[in-house]
Amino acid sequence: MAAVTGLVAENPVVIFSRNINCPMTHTVNSLITGFGANPVLYYLDRMPNRPQIESALAQLGRQQNEPAVFIGQQFIGGPTEVNSLLLRNELVPLLLRSNAIWVWRGA
What we know:
Layout: H1 2-9, E1 13-17, H2 23-34, E2 40-43, H3 50-60, E3 68-71, E4 74-77, H4 79-87, H5 91-97
Parallel strand pairs: 1-2
Antiparallel strand pairs: 1-3, 3-4
GO cellular component, one term: cytoplasm
Domain Glutaredoxin: 13-76
Subcellular location: Cytoplasm
């Protein structure tokens, strides 16, 4: 768990993905960057401590084939949870509180 905590503590938005070709990761990343945030992406298939990271993410409740999203050092979940935040108009306030974005004027 310490490995995940250390990586997440350094950035307001972090996404752990299976690999660079994961379409769900691309979708979540595009959504979050569309608001002006710059998530840090970690690709598990390229990490030497992959087993430890996957184990820690599983303990948090990550589904094995989905990206794991952290905003403000808080585990949000995967694409379903991120989209739920968006639909409830809670994603932008969360990005603002975590200092991932500073200003949002909306559409």
